[in-house]
Amino acid sequence: HHLPLLRPTTMFASATTSFIRKAIRSSTAAASSSQQFRSISLTPALLEKLNVQGLADKVNLEGQNVLMRVDLNVPLSKEDDVTVTDDTRLQAIAPTAKFLLEKGANVILCSHFGRPKGEIIETGKNGRLNPVVDPLKSILGVDVKKVNDCMGEEVEAAAKSLTKGEVLLLENTRFYKGETKNDATLAAGLGSLADYFVMDAFGTAHRAHSSTAGVTDYMKLSAAGFLLDKELKYLKGAVDKPNRPLCAIIGGAKVSTKLPVIESLLEKCDTILLGGGMIFTFYKALGYDIGKSMLEEEYVELAGKLMKMAEEKGVKLILPPDVVLADKFAEDATTAIAKASEISGDWMGLDVGPETLELFKEEIGNSNTIVFNGPMGVFEMKPFATGTITVAELMAEATDRGATTIVGGGDSVAAVNQAGLGDRVSHISTGGGASLELLEGKELPGVAALSEA
Fold first, then answer.
1. Nearest to 388 by CA among 363, 342, 419
2. Which one of the listed residues 21, 146, 254, 424 is annotated catalytic?
3. pLDDT tens digits for 205-220?
4. pLDDT 10s digits, 348-400
5. 410: annotated active-site residue
6. Is the pTM of the predicted complex or chain greater than 0.85?
7. Which residue in the list 433, 441, 442, 446 is annotated as catalytic?
8. Among this protein's residues, is 433 annotated catalytic?
9. Catalytic residue flag (residue 63)
10. Which of 110, 238, 291, 354 sits most deeply, having the most CB atoms within 10 A of its CB?
């Protein structure tokens, strides 16, 4: 039930590729505001950006103000709306911030928090950054002063008063509507606080915002922090120059968000394993009945074209031969296992089946670089979590034998952590959309804006 591996043809008409790009563009014209289909050319300069170590080698940072763009979007307790329930993202900024502090720099931290959409919201997940102040103090081991704005006279005075090795936290950048529009006034306001900029928020590097891209116009030098540097090394380096065979495991509900990634990975991978809700669009392209399973009708033709492209390129694009079916979308559903070609009636597929996992085990076992992006099923519900958890376990086993394993963003990260295997993979990406765009081979505005090494 998976596609036969054919000999690669000597010539491959790139017309198909451009057809897919055009079709994706036209079918998403309605959703053109969604950023994921921007066609951005890839420049080799991506890995040759200045990093924070290089910045410290070039400049004596003692007593200098460094504006550091970080991602402080941590979950807050539902009970009180102020207690941080998971400090992973705060811990992640520590290596770069501590490095700068050790060099005697003043670190001015800047982040958005939620989506306040230009309004000032006092508390909660779109509110002020007050909840992170105390956790940051204990993580960084220094006092953290906070201001209630991110630009203006009061903020400039606070920045000027810093001596050396101090930390100042700015207010939620998205209290300004202009932040997400890369507004020059906000970029200049942020730029007036420091001479040097360090970008360490990979999760927003795919957005050209005032605090991620525009601000660099007002800096002497702009560098990548350790976190961003590591993301580029793994998500770009490991995929562009992999230790072969390279295997990508792509899951998730929507085929529409993953098609450009699959298309791009066909140029690089030896094997691509598919899972998640999107497989039913591929089954439909093969003419299978998919019962009540999830379907994106407008992508059926494109799914068929991708399978053809894989065949022509000699890439193994493997669809699950069996699935776990449910009679309703619920934890207490009646379940059954069926061959992919034998789904019917009111049944819906909510996870990959046992035969699939045996096949995936073999393919992952044969690979030296493995990228995992997107769950294999509805892993939030226990009966449909087996596929995703098993893939996470197979990733950990591959790491143990020396393979490079990369978990790329979003739900797959949650799944790997849920399985308690976070420390047994080579790299866990902190980005969602940013991870996907980097795997697609796009240049990220927040990286493009940095100084050359």
1. 419
2. 254
3. 999 999 999 999 999 9
4. 999 999 999 999 999 999 999 999 999 999 998 999 999 999 999 999 999 99
5. yes
6. no
7. 433
8. yes
9. no
10. 110
